[in-house]
Amino acid sequence: MKTKEKDLLKAKSADELRADLHKTREQYFKMRFRHATAPLKNPLELRSLRRQVARLETLLKASAKPAAQGK
Fold first, then answer.
1. DSSP symbols for 1-43
2. Which label site among 27, 41, 49, 50 has the fewest CB atoms less than 10 Å from its CB?
3. Are the CB atoms for 53 and 17 separated by under 8 Å?
4. What would the pLDDT profile of 25-48 be if each residue is shown by its tens digit?
């Protein structure tokens, strides 16, 4: 992932990150299901989606920590 894309993700609000996470998880599930029934042209897309989900979860947790520490 390029630095510019990471900066764009970091600039998003928590609600936008949750929406992106939901959309990416849905894509990942559909792609995994298709891969189970027939091979994908590029199975490495599964890896990139899985990593994108992890990235979004990490950013969501990081954005939630400062709010929890302020209480």
1. --HHHHHHHHHS-HHHHHHHHHHHHHHHHHHHHHHHHS--S-T
2. 41
3. no
4. 999 999 999 999 999 999 999 999
